[in-house]
Amino acid sequence: MENTSTPTHCPYCALQCGMNITPLPQGGVEVTERPDFPVNRGALCGKGRTAAQVLSPALRLTAPLVREGGRLVEASWPRALDLIAERLGATRERYGPDALGVFGGGGLTNEKAYALGKFARVVLGTSQIDYNGRFCMSSAAAAGTKAFGLDRGLPFPLEDIPKTGCVILVGSNLAETMPPSLRFFTELRENGGTLIVVDPRRTRTAEQADLHLAPRPGTDLALALGLLHLVVAEGRTDEEYIRERTTGWEEARAAAMAHWPEHVERITGVSVPELREAVRLFCAPETAMVLTARGPEQQSKGTDTVGAWINLCLATGRAGRPLSGYGCLTGQGNGQGGREHGQKADQLPGYRKLDDPAARAHVAGVWGVDPDALPGPGRSAYELLDALGTDVRALLLMGSNPVVSAPRAAHVEQRLRSLDFLAVADVVLSETAELADVVLPVTQWAEETGTTTSLEGRVLLRRQAVTPPPGVHSDLYVLHELADRLGVEKGFPTDPEEVFEELRRASAGGPADYSGITYRRLAEENGVFWPCPEDSTGAGATADGGAAAPDGAADTAEGAGTAGAEGRFPGGTEPGTPVAVAGGPEGVSEGAGAGTAQHASAAGTAGADGRTTADAGGGMAAGADGSVAGAGGSLAVDGEDAALDVLPDDPASEAVPGLTPLAPPAPLPGHPTTGTEAASEARLVRTVPRVVGGHPGTPRLFLDRFATPDGRARFVPVFHRATAEEPDSEYPLLLTTGRVVSQYQSGAQTRRVAELNAAAPGPFVELHPRLAARLGAADGDPVAVVSRRGRAVAPARITPAIRPDTVFMPFHWPGEGRANTLTNPALDPTSRMPEFKSCAVRVEVLGPGE
């Protein structure tokens, strides 16, 4: 049978699950399984399974809009682009280049993020550029860089998680935020390992844990310090490791000893016996990991909080060793790549520092400009938004919806309204786009080719599968046309591969070195882990990616490793070794060098407990309580879809009409696994490519040395401090925010999908039964949550899964239920991360009509 599917990746979270876009005989396309991709092995959550729905012209923008008489009306592309260029140019001439702002997004491909940063600095000449990824992983990035010299979300592949002895998962409800990943933790427990979950709520993820610690919001730092205190007091430190591979232990040890267990219990609400049990579980096995997500990171002390968890890993010898380490579960689809290549306020491509003269010289050479002409670092994301209408008079925004997603959102909305000019490029008419003077309709994931970088540091190729609707162009086209109108005729190609080739050169020698990665390699190898330099000389560095910092070079000292002189292949797999790739007829898969079989199924999907199941009738999905939905597809849990869903029996039920599929990509020479049919026939056995004169990529970092000048990890002494806003008599409760399984980020796309909206139709306020009784609130009653910044209204949801002193709201919705109206923009002094996860509130029960 001729293969007509296009292999690609999901547009949503940082797992970047593999999927196929398959045309239907009756027209349109559907999402189908792609079991050869090792991260999800064909399983998809409800968002991924319905991702093609947003491709429908009926749900998205298909023509430029300009504001006339207070209304947005359709206009031609030349008119819209002329207007943007005219207004940006006039603003720059009148107020200077820093009166122009640029705001990007963690969902932009690497090519778009790179081009956007270049456009801001070369064409506009402004320093005022940042992106919404600042709100996601910046604290973990800052802490990782301090400790290890390099930030990559996970320094090891996800396939290592089931093989370790214990995982502490801090502030992540991955059963809802990235459901296909839960199976790694289920397999961990099946293999005899233990899972500790730290979360103020008993989430679906916490229900899977061997031990659930429920600290008061904003006290994760004290918790980590208390655990380290007990590690020291009980003699569980790895003194040889500390002596040989770290620096700064004495200061960090002294800081931890100031946080004795009883003191930590009073701060966090986690009992001393629970603290001791957590230390026992973490230290008993030979290997262990700590993984953090937004919970500890989105705090005004997020960098120190993550640093404390890293200190726990270092003190026990659980970093830079096989099957051990600290990692961050990056959130957005390209949150990792988005912070590596120039749309962040203080960075240049390759994760170079904007204030480093050598970095400026290298990138300026690639761009063909004078290094002195590049602006310096600018404002961070919230500070940039806060400056709109005053210092920053005009804004170009791509792929973000801060009206819903930013902290103190009502204030940010007011600042956006105060701009002299706002231009937005987006797929849909988001709440932010509704405020714009010009809106440009741009292509999305399946309508364009480009690369993303997953939370593993795996660079992936998304392939164009369908033709965009008439009237829709790519972001690269937008930047090319605006640059031309603003006097820069060259340097902004519209072909993504051409942009990537320039990105390779710009990143060469930097910490995030992509210079050895090509589109061809990405297609042949199912992704490549960075750093991956072009030249594999092996001089002074190691195959595990730890920087050797030869000759004290600034860029190398920041962390880019190259292949080791001994020629060791990262992960223990030699080039030429046969490895099995997921998705064979028996549904068995192995990652390269994994050594153990893991279950997969062409139709099977994982439920809320992460178990993968298969059924001849289309698959089964396991629910949060262990119950199983049959062949029909979806299991409702608490009014929402199950954590993972199966693909439908009837292909037409998920078909997207009105789309023109492209011809499938031609098989690459010598690569039998391009199509699903060929893959099945070949039993999906291939070899690790022999990269002649090239680098194989770096799945596992730091095994020989860390990416610091001396190769040692750095303890950073930290001390607990209170949140920026503690409860008082007027605001006696704490609010924390998060996501639900059926919506994504600001909801701009998922709220347009009927199935997802039916599962999660609107916001709610979680209240503990004791708090609800004290307030006189019943389940479903409208309640107002009030902070010093505003008021949000939503129905009460009574549940014992939350602490009595805490309320929870999901943040996907605009309007009166907008959770981020309430949140506190207090910033971490290092990462400039706002404190989304904790602020003081009160709850009021509303009467009829209120």
UniProtKB/TrEMBL annotation:
Residues 537-560, 595-611 have a biased composition (Low complexity). Residues 561-574, 584-594 have a biased composition (Gly residues). The keyword Iron applies. Signal peptide: none annotated. It holds the Pfam family Molybdop_Fe4S4. Keywords: 4Fe-4S, Iron, Iron-sulfur, Metal-binding. SMART domains: Molybdop_Fe4S4. Residues 3-59 form the 4Fe-4S Mo/W bis-MGD-type domain. The keyword Iron-sulfur applies. Residues 533-611 are annotated as: Disordered. It comes from the Bacteria. CDD domains: MopB_CT_Fdh-Nap-like. PANTHER family: NADH-QUINONE OXIDOREDUCTASE SUBUNIT G (PTHR43105:SF10), RESPIRATORY NITRATE REDUCTASE (PTHR43105). This is Molybdopterin oxidoreductase family protein.
